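Quick one - first record:
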Amino acid sequence: MSGAPRVRSMNVADSEARPVLGPAGNKGGSLSAKKPASKPLRKVEKSPVGVTVAESKKALPSSTINSLSPKTHSASVPSVLRRHEQLLHSNLSLNASCSSDASTDSFHSRASTARLIRSNSVGSRRKPYPSKPRSVVSDGGLDSPPDGSHLKKRCAWVTPNTDPCYVAFHDEEWGVPVRDDKKLFELLVLSGALSELTWPVILSKRHLFREVFADFDPITVTKLNEKKLIAPGSMASSLLSELKLRAIIENARQISKVIDEFGSFNEYIWGFVNQKPIVSRFRFPRQVPVKTPKADVISKDLVRRGFRSVGPTVVYSFMQVVGITNDHLTGCFRFQECIAAAEAKEENGIIDTAEEKKTDNVNVIESELSIAIDELSFSSE
């Protein structure tokens, strides 16, 4: 049998070089020689908590260290070491919590550091989300322009991506009652062009239409050379097909006949609605029809008179644009404006007729006076 193990006298220097013994005594040599124990010691030495552990070891009295000798107290070694380990672990946890509360930039254990980083990253992700709409407003993306045009609610078919020329056409012309013969003829031609082109394209080429068709004077259009107008390579041929160009010239001839019969094309076309526009009061785009019975009646009468390319769909588009029917949606800001414009023109028409009657009465009185004067002068002679 081997004798009792040889025990060195331990002092403060040995306690700094050698770690605390395990519960099994010193049979396996020092803990620093074992690989599993050396790894956590290196991690502890890297952290400031390890410094406190070393300092606590220095602070232990030599009598306590000497009492760890297996020669005198071999039975009480495990219990004493467990107490010291508990004290050291409590100091470690206390120092770690103090260091984490004192500064977020200090070194932490891996578990606490991971939790802090996750919480900070989540906070940094959540903070920008509520601030995004505010930044858009502050950058001017949602600020109202000087004219406040985006505040105006338009018909649903006018979207933010709609061509600006069509938006202006909707805001200024579409649905406003038209009484001028030249303007009526122009809009009849443009409505007929919808079978080949769209409103944005037509409006972008509107100046070309006016140039080709002499500002839509019906009498001048009837005098145009039809062969030159429809010749390949001409400006008119780049706008519409030959069929449409021939129809425009023929419609100008028929409008001239209507003017001779009714006094104006305005009196003829507005006579179908008793000189008052039809107010549809549609709320949704799906309610707006492509044609109506009234459009069928007007179309048949125009065809009977010799007009071309004036089907019910073309006629209804013409009725919409010249204000014979007010098809602005009730939520559109132009709905009430077009009603007001129609009422104002109706009042102006009444005033004009009253003035015409007054002038007629004055002319009658003047003629009667002149006749009476002539009779007096003849009797005096």
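second record:
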Amino acid sequence: MFGLALSLRVRVLLDNAKWAYVGGFTEDKQKKRRNTASWLRERALQLGPTFIKLGQLSLTRSDLFPREFVDELAKLQDKVPAFSPMKAKRFIESELRAPINVLFKEFEDQPIPAASLGQVHRAILHNGEKVVVKVQRPGLKKLFDIDLRKILYQEIDYINEGKNADRFRRDFRNIKWVRIPMVFWDYTATKVLTLEYVPGIKINQLDALDSRGYNHSRISSRAIEAYLIQASNIDLSQKTL
């Protein structure tokens, strides 16, 4: 970790040094900064889930990072190497204490693009309900015992994540333009979370939004309103404690 921080510091100093930009911030110099950002993303992938998560968290402070770094680190949201489907199935069977074919009518081996702490597989229950199954990466608890124990423990508890999803559904139950996936508790454990399958479009996929006829301004105003509703509900719940 110290080596990564030192190497990054040296690269950033060289990229930002005034003498390195004689003649202005040219395309070649911008490419140099993009190379540094790409190097950081690759190191995060090599160092594993904890550092991938830190890279994802950095995206929330785009005011502190150059555009080249934000663009590269954004790739950590859904372009993380997946672990094998056999390993995922064994993990699910261990957590839910039943064979895959007993739990699900169909289970897709190919995951939806993987994230830092887990990956998601589409599946169909025996009653025909389409769901997604979030499977935690093996070994995370042991890893967090070593480096970011207090910060990330809550995030690897899928029971806690499911309870938060249920609370969100209650908070937004009277708002028709918000849909929170339903949790299937019979198929959920500490390291496996099964949710209603609700397909959607990422908010930064502007071409896809345009092709569906969505209004950007309306999406922005609805997002702001949703945040305000959440803040209001949190404030009210704290006052009632």
